[in-house]
Predict the 3D structure of the following.
Amino acid sequence: MPGVNTETRPPLAPKQSKRLLTVLVVIAIISMILGLVLPFLQKPRFVADEIAAVEVSLIELPDQPEWQVTSADAAAIAALVEVLNTGDRVVRIMGEPTGTITLRQVNGDFILDFRPGDEDEYYEFRVRCGTPRGIYRVERQAFLSAMADLGVSDLAAEP
């Protein structure tokens, strides 16, 4: 038939076939590992300049009163965002929250549940509304300091 390529390629030699298969297997394994590891390397990315106000609601607990505070203090918001952005993603499921942080933005809110971590040196938060979703932990003292700048004190000491 005119215009049709009827030429055929010779089959790959067994050595070339094995090499190609090995390369494809290695690429597949690396892709799977990256797919499992990369989400845990991702940190939250909140932008302080895009947040107009922060609302913090505390749940009543034996060692924590129930109350709510709202702040539009740019310096306090920036301090909180700086701490939140240091969060390391954790695998385990976070327990019951002791409070909620709502980061108010023009284009949508971020809602985070928080609680003291199981380890004394951390506080944990879950991004419940907004992206990237996930559970993160931050250094407890830095978190408590940022919350104090917002006017929040008397946070629960235990999960």
Summary: Residues 12-41 form one domain. The chain is about 30% helix and 25% strand. The chain has two domains: 12-41, 48-149. The radius of gyration is 25 Å.
